[in-house]
UniProtKB/TrEMBL annotation:
NCBIfam families linked: HAD-SF-IIB, T6PP
Pfam families given in the database record: Trehalose_PPase
Catalytic activity, EC: 3.1.3.12
Protein name as it appears in the record: Trehalose 6-phosphate phosphatase
Signal peptide (UniProt feature, chain positions): none
Membrane spanning residue stretches: 13-32
Keyword terms, alphabetized: Hydrolase, Membrane, Transmembrane, Transmembrane helix
Names of the cofactor(s): a divalent metal cation
Record bears the keyword Transmembrane helix: yes
Compositional bias of kind Polar residues: 48-57
InterPro entries given in the database record: HAD-like_sf, HAD-SF_hydro_IIB, HAD_sf, OTSB-like, Trehalose_PPase
Length: 359
């Protein structure tokens, strides 16, 4: 399955990304000198290309023929992948059968899951329909949003006080003051910030990157409090090299920070053993379900950072992970949904099932 360690991108990988955007074979060879693991190298380059902007296709007859063949091959790959990662909507009856009599907890990524991926991250708004469904879900089940975004930022998008919010990839967690579990018998707000000591460093690097990336049109640096996001969705492919070099040079001076890659974004995080999987475990413990055999967590996400949570669920042998994706990907998730529209449909069916079952 997914090799999570390979998602961590160090300075050498930035050179690979830089080289990948340079077509000259001789130059590429110079950048790649010293790398012996060809398979690992190819995976890294493919990963960078996979998150790149869509390329313009040629309209020549030979290109059209190739595109038709590729489309057929791609559909075969999708069909094969779907055998092992079926649609959560198509398998809904089986899913609810498996969770009957169990306490359901829902965990949701934000961008690409509750809201569509957009060019401007400040405009990643949910639909009114999604917000209404999310509010209904939270009425029936403890619900958390686990995101790479700043917790305050995602709260400004969602505006539902009854949810748990885990921002900065789970490094900034806060929940409702009133306990959802009557057995805990307290009204203290859930709060977890394991990377607090890194705040001054994160702020310092943020200011540096803002200045350094000014020369790269379309680049956007987002301060998520306990981590930083360098968005290259709107960066011309010809400028990737310049952006990669700027980020690499800055991070060379900060060995306590690491770089991971998401969907058309480079994520800068503290080098602590904390991720979305750890956040999921912390929230389950906070709800009183740490050692429970009758809890059924559902985690829905679209990014490779969500794989840590999918893996936790698979290792626990409890609940399900649902990957939001239209294309085959290596994943620890058991099921798939294509986009936020299907996510809303799945959550709505979950609400309707809960109401009709009177559990």
């Amino acid at each position: 399955m997914t090799n999570h360690e390979s998602n961590v991108v160090g300075p050498d990988v930035m050179l690979i990304a830089l080289a990948a955007s340079i077509p000259n074979a001789a130059v590429l060879g110079g950048f790649l000198k010293g790398f012996n693991d060809t398979s690992k190298l190819n995976n890294l380059i493919d990963s960078m290309r996979a998150s790149s902007p869509t390329r313009t296709r040629s309209s020549s007859s030979s290109s059209l023929a190739n595109n038709n063949n590729n489309a057929s091959d791609n559909q075969d790959n999708i069909n094969s992948w779907m055998v092992y990662h079926p649609s959560a909507l198509n398998m809904f009856d089986q899913i609810v059968y498996n969770m009957k009599g169990k306490k359901i907890v829902t965990f949701l990524d934000y961008d690409g899951t509750l809201s569509p991926i957009v060019a401007d991250p400040d405009k990643a708004f949910m639909t009114k329909k999604m917000r209404a469904t999310l509010k209904d879900i939270a009425r029936h089940f403890p619900t958390a949003i686990v995101t790479g975004r700043c917790r305050d930022k995602v709260y400004s998008f969602v505006k539902l006080a009854e949810l748990y919010y885990a921002g900065s990839h789970g490094m900034d967690i806060k929940g409702p003051t009133k306990s959802r579990n009557p057995n805990k018998g307290n009204d203290k707000a859930v709060l977890c910030q394991p990377a607090s000591k890194f705040l001054p460093m994160i702020e310092e690097v943020y200011k540096i990157l803002l200045e350094k990336t000014k020369s790269v049109p379309g680049a956007k640096v987002e301060n998520n409090k306990f981590c930083l996001s360098v968005h290259f969705r709107c960066v011309d492919e010809k400028c990737w090299a310049a952006l990669a070099e700027q980020v690499r040079l800055v991070l060379n001076e900060y060995p306590k920070l690491k770089l991971t890659q998401g969907r058309k974004v480079l994520e800068i995080r503290p080098t602590i053993k904390w991720d979305k999987g750890k956040a999921l475990e912390f929230l389950l413990e906070s709800l009183g379900y740490e050692n429970s055999n009758d809890v059924f967590p559902i985690y829905i996400g679209d990014d490779r950072t969500d794989e840590d949570a999918f893996k936790v669920l698979r290792n626990r042998g409890q609940g399900i992970g649902i990957l939001v994706s239209r294309v085959p990907k290596d994943t620890e998730a058991s099921y798939t949904l294509k986009d936020p529209v299907e996510v809303e449909q799945f959550l709505r069916r979950l609400v309707e099932w809960k109401r009709s079952s009177n559990q």
